[in-house]
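The data are quoted verbatim for completeness:
=====
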Amino acid sequence: MARTPTGAAVLQPEVTQAITEAVMWELAEQGYGRLSMEAVAKRAGVGKSALYRRWASKDHMIASVVTDFSVTRAAAADTGSLRGDLRETMQALIDWLTHPLFSRILPDLVAEDARNPDHGRGLREAIGGPRREVGEVMLRRAMTRGELPEDLDMELALDVLAAPIYWRLVVRMAPAEPDYVDRLVEYALRALGAQGA
């Protein structure tokens, strides 16, 4: 029978949480380029070794923290209707993009990606891939229920759902009015060719 590891071999969840919060704050305040392992460790109240036990490098640490933060906020809505699923999904996307810390981090990540596309590709795939998979499940479920056409262009449909929100909140920095999600859902239903839209 295997013995449960003790001491340094155990990654304590509360330490991981403190480090995760420190990474997010350092990204928001310092940006990707100026973030240092030393500053993260100091903010989290741990030694640098605690970081290196979890991640091989600064890049791995940032990618892991940002991915976990982002993917866990993708709504896996199953309300029984495409309209309901879209509403929950779009609201979750707005909540993610307007999160007090993440809304300060995302523009810097986009800029870093433009400066170093090879480096940014991994982060894009780690965040975008799982979030798009959640969206695809939602759309395929709607297709099975007969709410969407069987020949739906999945890639374009997924773009149609996310792009207006990103453009409005991140690029234009315009607010999402109280009825924005409802108006966007109705627009998306028409754009996707939903039955009865």
